[in-house]
């Protein structure tokens, strides 16, 4: 692997890692629903052998493990939020009175299939504000 010096390359590596984690999560969820490895590979665009390797050693979920996807989702939301902060050039972690420019990000994340609660966690806005922005008949 070549050394990464360009900030864009670093950002791409971080996003690739997030995508890989999401793929792994999807594979785990589909396997829990007893979907065949070949079908999982087709949906996630992975070879059947890769799916088998990802699921190697995985046992049926216990009640504790069923909550794991929610924990992973919360951690991925944090990674996505940090990446968005870096991409938009925001400095620091202090809450501002108003999250300016969040509308475009909210609509983009909604188009990617995230629900309002996850979007609110990523952007740092209240869920009601996110839902208002996503309402088609919102006043201008």
Describe the structure in brief:
With 140 residues, the chain is mainly α. The chain has eight helices and no strands. It has helices spanning 7-32, 37-44, 48-54, 63-66, 68-88, 102-111, 116-123, 127-134.
Number of contiguous helices: 8
Determine the CATH topology of the largest domain.
Answer: Arc Repressor Mutant, subunit A
- Alpha-carbon distance between the termini? 49 Å
Q: How many strands, which pairing sense, and closed or not: the largest β-sheet?
A: none
Question: How many separate domains?
Answer: 2
Instruction: Name the overall outline.
Output: globular
- % residues in beta strands: under 5%
Number of strands: 0
- The CATH architecture of the largest domain can be given as Orthogonal Bundle
Could you spell the SSE succession in H and E letters? HHHHHHHH
